[in-house]
Amino acid sequence: MGTLEAVEYLLQRRHQPNRTIYIAFGHDEEVAGGDGAAAISRTLMSRGVKVEFILDEGSMVIKDLVPGIDKPVAMISTSEKGFVTLRLSVNTTGGHSSMPERESSIGILANAVARLEASPHPNMFGQGPEVGLVENAGQEMNFLFRILTSNLWMFGPLISRLMSMKPSTNALVRTTTALTEFRAGIKSNVLAPWAEATVNHRIHPAQTVDEVIEFDRSIINDGRVKIEVLEHHEPLPLSPYGPDVFGYQTIKTTIKQIFPDAVVTPGLMVGGTDSKHYTQLTDNIYRFCPTFVYPEDLKMWHGINERISITNYEQTVNFFYHLLLNADMGELNPMHAHGSEL
Asked: What pLDDT is stored for residue 335 in this prediction?
């Protein structure tokens, strides 16, 4: 909506862009974009289209996200986690509850998933875009954290441990494990002949789908537990974010126009977006939403009372309006404060 309102305002002002701008809305982003974004990408590729950069939905402007920094942090995700969804299952003979075997299908599977939760995947700090977040945010941190972040060769393990202590930052440094479904039992006095659990991993860019599955297999270490892959996608490549990279710097400039107090950093998109379908069009793919939140607000996404404020919606429209203008320049320009056009 914010994008379309920005476009409508530009049309009302009879703005004529100098560069071609594609605005792609798929109808099935929440179910992986196989019929929407994938079809759009195929069409553009068939026409030989190559684009300067892509901005998709993604990370937000978050207050109190990074330890040691009081300012809000605006992360431009330069990569995106992969995922694999696994079905774990156990089959036994079942029977009457009055004569139970020593181990049940529920007990065997419960032990397996308990091991997975108790044994997180390794911390990959320093092997992905999270290090860019720390290095850029470190310049705005308090004195103690500036010492730590400016000497990652020495304090990297400490920083990685600190980041792993909060769910919001732990997701940036490792492949996460989420147990999302558990099904078993047919009657209160009948031993369950089968039990199934669903495990969803979001994969750090330094790992692969196969590595994650083998890690799980070694942790479960029980041949009675069958592991099936339901769906998967590898992590996406890291896009550049240097001072001369037009796409990244244009997005950064626009963020600073709308959120002047924000510290802009590269980062990692922990969820899934349609951008995975556009990797053949450009190497410069970024993910950012001009939404201002606190860490506790993250739980409402796809949850109860999902919302943004009226002020933030106005900021969203302003962001896309200025992004369209900034991207249309075709070259990097010094940042200027946005006016009261909208």
From this structure: 60
Contact 80, 268 (CB under 8 A): yes
- List, in sequence order, the alpha helices (H) in 122-165: 130-137, 143-149, 152-163
Backbone φ and ψ of 77, nearest 5° = -75, 120
Rounded distance between C-alpha atoms, residue 271 and residue 195, angstroms: 28
**140: which DSSP letter?**
G
CA distance 322 to 257: 8
Using an 8 Å Cβ cutoff, are 255 and 323 in contact? no
Quick check: 220 pLDDT over 80? yes
Is-contact 86 174, C-beta < 8 A?
no
pTM of the model: 0.88
Conformation bin of residue 227: beta by default, left when phi > 0, alpha when psi is -120 to 50:
beta
Cα separation, 233 vs 191, whole angstroms:
36
Taking CA atoms, 134 is separated from 37, 130, 263, 265, in Å, by 32, 7, 11, 8
What is the per-residue pLDDT for 31? 80
The predicted-structure confidence for 248-262, as pLDDT tens digits, reads as follows: 999 999 999 999 999
CA distances from 20 to 11, 127, 324, 328, 329 (A): 15, 35, 11, 8, 11
